[in-house]
Amino acid sequence: MNSSFSARNQVAIVGYAQSDIVKHAGIPLGAIALGIATRAITDAGLTVDQIDGFTSSALFPSAGDHAVVDGVSTVSSTWLAQRLGINPRYASGFQGYGQMPGSIALAVNAIASGAADYVLVHRALHNPTGSYHGNPMQQASGPMQWTVPQGFFGPLAMIGLTYNEYLQRFGASPDSMANVLVEARKNGARIPWSYWHDRPLATQEYLDSPTLVDPIRRLDCDIPVDGCTAFVLTSAERAKDLPHPPVFISGFAGGSPTRNRLPLHWPLDDVYDIGRETALRLWNAAGVGPGEVDLPQLYDGFSPFVYFWLEVLGLCPVGEAHRFVQGGGIDSDLPSGLPVLSGGGALGNGRMHGVPQMLECYLQLSRRAGDRQRARASIGLACHASPHLGGAVVYSASAS
Q1: Rounded to the nearest 10 degrees, what angle do helices 355-365 and 99-113 cross at?
Q2: How far out from the chain centre does Cα 129 lie?
Q3: Cα–Cα distances in Å, from 305 out to 280, 326, 332?
Q4: Of 36, 51, 100, 289, most Cβ neighbours within 10 A?
Q5: How far apart are CA 249 and CA 104, in angstroms?
Q6: pLDDT at 1
Q7: pTM of the predicted model, to two decimals?
């Protein structure tokens, strides 16, 4: 696999910090982010004045009528830099889906180009009071006039349509998804900062959970939370002098739909066509294939995403993910199981938007996962969002 990605394994994660993930924090999101950023810098063996780059995504992922206020409901790169007292050489925010892969791409490009030496990457999520995905519209115009009056509004309706298409096309049972939820919650229950710490899920609890938009049950959705995570990145050369084993970024890729659709209309063929193209870009950039990844962390903001990512990445045949999962294929406690949710994911931690996937790759590959450390963890993969409009990053424990 040849690639023109010249920055392969030239940039590394060298430190991190993670807040507790709670439904509603007792302090503003900006205050949480400041504390976490400072802890991450210290963890990397650096001082605040050494940080000269910031990247993030400040997307506030609610479809309801909520105010977006920097430092309160979101935290941008520039807000965080200013509050830390830093005039950065480089500050940027990723606009789009796949927020964590997009933010990592910005950081890698900044370091590889020499625009910054030490970059802080963070993601801060806020859970506002009130209905998270309530529809505040009194009228609908433009393309939404064809969907909103019929009740097709927001992410739940969107993923419900795509998931229904999967179930019908491949003869899957929605009850089989219990395996994904049980696995995510089992692993999230083992993580101290998780919203679901010490609260695993039984299969029957999933089957008894109410349906929100058929066939999506309440437990198929990650829970909105307050929380923040920060990572420090620098060059592979500088990483040699820092206290923790570095985790190298081998490659990244993203994609977006090319066909014009009505808002939130995600046909399954779009997911597969663009998703497979994104996967091919990823393998070419990283110089590895799916069989070489021993820690694939798949995005699960809605549970069906796990099926879609398994298939577009080539981890199982198209149309077979539901059977693969039902047969114990993702049971991380089995020697043969793919640990796609070993870090709990979004369903096992809370709506942290790709952070649990990236964090699990960092902790396992740097050998900092404690009691959860996996013996085989050398190449990781972290996904975010849907395969057709998200992204993924490959991480390596070795620069070679």
Answers
A1: 50
A2: 23
A3: 18, 15, 18
A4: 100
A5: 9
A6: 44
A7: 0.96
- Residue 124: which of 63, 51, 40 has the closest Cα? 40
**Please, what's the largest Cα pairwise distance for the chain?**
59
DSSP label of 381:
E
pLDDT tens string 120-159: 999 999 999 877 677 777 787 888 788 877 777 788 989 9
Q: CA 276, 279, 281: angle at the middle one, nearest 5?
A: 115
14-32: pLDDT as tens digits: 999 999 999 999 999 999 9
The Cα 395–Cα 101 span in angstroms is 11
Q: Cα(187)–Cα(165) distance, rounded to whole angstroms?
A: 29
How far apart are the C-alpha atoms of 18 and 247, rounded to whole Å?
17
**What is each CA distance from 379 to 158, 249, 342, in whole angstroms?**
33, 10, 14
Say which residue the tokens 């799916």 belong to: 290
CA distances from 77 to 71, 87, 285 (A): 10, 11, 27
